Amino acid sequence: MTPAIEAACAGLESQLTPIRESRVKWTAKQAGLQTDLLQLDSAFQKLERPVKQTGKKSSGQTAREVHDSPVLEAARQAIERLRMPVREKLEQIAAKVDGLRTQELPLEAAIKALKTPAKEPSKKRQKPSGSNVKQKDVIEACVKVLKEEHALKGAELEQKVRLYLKKDRGLSLLGYAMRFKEAMKTDVFAIIEDGVVVLSESVAVEENAAVAASASATVAN
Fold first, then answer.
1. What is the DSSP string of 140-189?
2. Domain of 87?
């Protein structure tokens, strides 16, 4: 990160930290009140259940009468009075926590975005500057290579010609495989045992004649 980005992150962190600390504090209070409310709810539910009379049968009180007794009703009302403010406080705290979280989220997203390394723009594939290879180019290159090597297996010849056309001639190899196959079908080349490629007899004769003529001219001079 550059110093400017680090400074921007630090500024956002300074805004985020107190908000986060406040949310944590209110969340802890929320958890404590929820525990209190659970206890009050449990107590209220116990008082809501019919109470079995454990005294003498001659007392004449039924379980319903005990449940509806003024003492138990007063106890339920007392617990309800305790529950109401706890519920209200929990609603207030929940709203407070939600509000703080709403403030946190954009700050967290901004910090994460700043700390994530930028992706370099993808480079468009450039087409080779040279013109596309033609069958004539392939034939000439094959003849050149075979003059030097005399005989090569097809795959080896294909690789040597490919390298020559790309490196020495600067041609685009788009469609090269097809051009090479077409070149091998011409009468310039002959394929002998084990897929070995040589110059055809007619081409070899022409080449030898050209070499002989060149040698004669040199001697004459």
1. HHHHHHHHHHSEEEHHHHHHHHHHIIIIIS--B-TTHHHHHHHHHTSTTE
2. 3-115
Residues 121-134: pLDDT tens digits?
665 555 555 678 89
Residue 124 domain-assigned (yes or no): no
Is residue 149 situated within a structural domain? yes
Q: In the chain, count H helices and then E strands.
A: 7, 3
Q: Is the domain of 197 the same as that of 157?
A: yes
Number of domains in the chain: 2
The overall pTM is greater than 0.90:
no
Instruction: Sheet containing 151-153: give its strands across.
Output: 151-153, 196-199, 189-191
Phi-psi region of 220 (alpha: psi -120 to 50; beta: other; left: phi over 0): alpha
The verdict on residue 130 lying in a domain is no
Residue 81 has, within 13 A of its CA and on its CB side, a CA count of 6
